[in-house]
Each structure stands twice: as structure tokens, then as C-alpha cells.
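Quick log. Single chain, no ligands specified.
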Amino acid sequence: MAAANETKNGRAATLRGLTLAVLVLGSLWGVAEVVLNDTIKAVEFPFRAGALVGFGMLVMGALLGFARRPLALLAIPLVAVSIKQLVVPIAGATVLCKANSCIAVLLQATVLAGAAGFALEAIQRRSAARVAAGAGAGLLSAVPFYFVGLAVAPCNYLLSFDRAGGFAAFMVQEGLVWAAFAAVLFPAGYWIGVRVREPLGALEARRPAVYCGTALGVTVCCWIGAALAIAIGA
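-> predicted structure:
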């Protein structure tokens, strides 16, 4: 009976830890999409989309390294997208206002989850596999984004590729940049996730109230920060 209770408690802790990790990392991704997007525009960094894709890959790499569950990668963008859609109640924008960037976030997570599910063992063992997974997910997610983005809510920049040879130009100008950022930042995020897995697990086991309270506090701060950034920029 004691062994059964320990197993049950262990599973509950794992589910709790995974849920909180998704909330915290998804919220960090969401607030970064809101704040970094405007910051990068302000400093006129030429690879804005690539940097945002890279940050998303960093966050998802951390989740995969921490949880080792590829399917969890499908949950994290839902949190990020929810934060991005705060523009609807706060700024009075339509859902389509952030449709393209939300589509990009969802596609990146979907492609990476597929790659991780297919090659999880290799990703865990070899750094080259992590680089390949990140680069491949960044590049392949750009393919459906081009077509879906043009069909749903094309911005002026994306419309500039709506021409003969536009897809090839987009893949060179954006797809390769996405792949480059993802190739560097996904392995970095994975490394972070692996390193914090044991200490955070120990903290959760010893002081669950502190663990949960801190995670929820970070999540709330991210949502408030994103809301304030949207309100100021509205």
C-alpha cells in the first residue's frame, strides 16, 4: 500500500510539475512575443521573425529537456497564443490582428513536437540531433506558414512574397533565418531544461507550496506584463 501511494504521489507530482512548466514557459513565450516584438522593431534588428522563432525554440527546448514528453510541446503554444490575443479585450483589436504570428507559434510547436516524437532518443543522446531538430523545425514550419499566412491574414510584408518565385524567396529570406536561430537556441533551451530538472523536482518534493507559488507568481507576472505592454502600445 505504501509503495502504491508513493507511485501515485510521484505521478501526481510529475503531472503538477509538467502543468506548471507549461504555464510558466508558455507565459514567458507569450510575453516575449508581445514585448520583444516591439523592442526589436524599435531597434530595427533585421531578423525580427528569426529572433522570435528562436526564443520560442529556446522555451520549447527547455520544456522538452525538463519533461521529456514531446506531446507537451503541443500545449505550450496555447498559453503563448492566449497572451498574444489579449489585444482583443485590451486594445479592441480583432482576433485576426495577431492571426499570423499566432499561426507561426502553433506551427513551430507542431513541427517540433513531431520531430521530437520521431527522434526523441537521438535528441536526448546527441547534440547534433538537437541542432538538426531545431533547424529542421524552424525551416519546415516556414513552409506551411507561407501558404496559411497568405490565406488567412496576410500582412504587407508577407504579401510582398505573393508573386512568381515568392515562395523560394521567402524560404531564403525567412525560412533559413528561422532555421539558423532555432539551430542555436533549441539545443540551448534543451540544455537548460535538463540542468534544472533534478533541482526543481527536488524542490517540488520538499516544498510543494513554494514550488507551486513561485511558478504561479511568475505566470501571473508575465500575463500582467503583457497586458500592460499591450495597453501602453494601444
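The chain has one domain: 23-233.
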